[in-house]
């Protein structure tokens, strides 16, 4: 091809691109919505902040809302909201399906999380829902209690250890053990693994980043899925544990949906709850008054640590509940805004949204809302001890809301009460080598923390029953 031909092709490409940009800026149904012109022109705007700037798109959204208002255009066909009323409208409306392009990146189109067909998703949830009901969780409470007991024993074996204990990974280990034992009656003994370094535990912390990478660069999906394990190990040794673990799941290799469901249950059930426990523990340990008060309340309600405390009794301890709720407000759960498709013109937070628009809102815009939670960056469990705590708890949405909310919400709540309750009743620990900088994070679906929560284990009690078992 000659120079002239190349120039003609380049000119044609430029004309097409210019026409597309002009159309998006001035002719698109969202053209009247405020926001950066570059974001309206191309999805690469979000890619830049998500991938190349280390997951700061969410932080950038806060600045954009201050500049442009409660509804902003953040991509050619996407709106993001900051008005708290919008959250329920977006995520509880059964008419709004999930965006296939976004969820395809998580390689689980047949699992309940990744399924974008509303009817199929409902059928899947109806099938699995009873297993994760409140009734089922209480029926299998002994499974969780046994795993938590082993967790406390494992901490007792690290008293006066020469190096601080990475309790962040310890929490990921116990949540992995609970989800695999509860769902598949299979123990992987991650709790007993040296330094809580079970390969899957180490790998899962980077899995959500991989999902975000594929979301922005979907053409990489076939390449990533086709990489052999040995090559994955050369590139990033810990990540190789993910496909190996997935293949070990107790599901027929031909049953794609079952394997995907299992992988999502294990990945989400490990990281979201494990991260929440780490964040809760960090804030309790860095607030001496909170720590002292929680310990006092637990000792008074639970005088004999060798006697097991039932979940339903722990749930009735107001200050423990307040600490967990406040911790979840800081942990957030999924932080990346999850897009839904408006299937017909709909009013959201007083604004008419055109058909086929993607609408999103991050949970952080509820958890940090100053009208609901004054001084939102201060850890203050007392805010949940008022006359009507439900008025506040309604705005705590780490498990999302509506018909597509987290399938394992009841199991997650049980874990939080049993793990945090047992930890602060039975274990004396001191935070070390951990600063506020370690708790900073980038948004890659879940928070991706810059460091780990570490502590010295000083004293452990209430383990006799598990030692005898």
From TrEMBL:
InterPro entries, sorted: Cyt_P450, Cyt_P450_CS, Cyt_P450_E_grp-I, Cyt_P450_sf, Cytochrome_P450_monoxygenase
Transmembrane segment boundaries: 6-27
Family to which this protein belongs: Belongs to the cytochrome P450 family.
Annotated metabolic or biological route of this protein: Secondary metabolite biosynthesis
Range of residues in the leader sequence: none
PROSITE patterns: CYTOCHROME_P450
Organism of this sequence: Coprinellus micaceus
Protein name per the record: Cytochrome P450
Keywords (A to Z) from UniProt: Heme, Iron, Membrane, Metal-binding, Monooxygenase, Oxidoreductase, Transmembrane, Transmembrane helix
Binding-site residues for heme, renumbered to this chain: 406
CC cofactor: heme
PANTHER family (alphabetical): CYTOCHROME P450, N-ACETYLTRYPTOPHAN 6-HYDROXYLASE IVOC-RELATED
GO molecular function annotations of the record: heme binding; iron ion binding; monooxygenase activity; oxidoreductase activity, acting on paired donors, with incorporation or reduction of molecular oxygen
Domain of life, source organism: Eukaryota
């Amino acid at each position: 091809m000659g120079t002239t031909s190349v120039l003609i092709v380049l000119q044609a490409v430029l004309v097409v691109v210019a026409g597309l940009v002009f159309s998006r800026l001035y002719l698109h149904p969202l053209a009247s919505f405020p926001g950066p012109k570059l974001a309206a022109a191309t999805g690469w705007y979000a890619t830049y902040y998500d991938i190349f700037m280390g997951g700061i798109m969410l932080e950038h959204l806060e600045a954009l809302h201050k500049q442009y208002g409660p509804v902003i255009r953040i991509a050619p066909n996407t709106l993001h909201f900051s008005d708290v009323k919008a959250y329920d409208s977006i995520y509880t409306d059964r008419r709004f399906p999930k965006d296939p392009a976004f969820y395809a990146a998580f390689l689980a189109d047949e699992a309940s999380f990744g399924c974008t067909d509303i009817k199929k998703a409902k059928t899947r949830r109806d099938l699995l829902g009873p297993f994760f009901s409140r009734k089922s969780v209480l029926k299998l409470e002994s499974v969780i209690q046994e795993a938590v007991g082993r967790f406390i024993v494992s901490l007792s074996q690290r008293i006066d250890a020469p190096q601080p204990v990475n309790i962040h990974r310890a929490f990921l280990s116990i949540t992995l053990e609970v989800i695999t034992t509860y769902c598949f009656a299979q123990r992987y003994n991650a709790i007993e693994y040296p330094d809580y370094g079970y390969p899957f535990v180490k790998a899962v912390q980077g899995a959500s980043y991989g999902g975000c990478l594929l979301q922005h660069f979907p053409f990489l999906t076939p390449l990533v899925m086709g990489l052999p394990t040995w090559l994955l190990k050369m590139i990033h040794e810990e990540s190789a544990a993910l496909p190996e673990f997935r293949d070990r799941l107790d599901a027929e290799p031909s049953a794609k949906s079952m394997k995907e469901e299992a992988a999502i249950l294990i990945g989400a059930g490990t990281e979201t709850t494990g991260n929440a426990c780490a964040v809760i523990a960090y804030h309790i340990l860095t607030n001496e008054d909170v720590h002292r008060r929680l310990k006092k309340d637990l000792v008074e309600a639970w005088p004999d640590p060798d006697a097991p405390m039932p979940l339903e009794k722990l749930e009735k301890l107001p200050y423990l509940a307040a600490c967990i709720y406040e911790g979840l407000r800081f942990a957030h759960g999924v932080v990346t805004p999850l897009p839904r498709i408006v299937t017909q013109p709909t009013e959201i937070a007083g604004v008419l949204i055109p058909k086929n628009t993607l609408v999103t809102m991050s949970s952080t815009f509820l958890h940090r809302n100053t009208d609901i939670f004054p001084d939102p960056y201060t850890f203050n469990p007392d805010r949940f001890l008022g006359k009507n705590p439900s008025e506040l708890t309604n705005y705590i949405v780490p498990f999302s809301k509506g018909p597509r909310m987290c399938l394992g919400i009841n199991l997650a709540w049980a874990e939080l009460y049993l793990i945090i309750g047992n930890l602060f009743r039975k274990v004396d620990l001191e935070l070390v080598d951990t600063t506020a900088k370690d708790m900073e994070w980038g948004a890659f679906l879940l928070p991706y923390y810059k460091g780990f929560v570490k502590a010295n284990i000083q004293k452990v009690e209430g383990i006799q029953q598990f030692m005898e078992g």
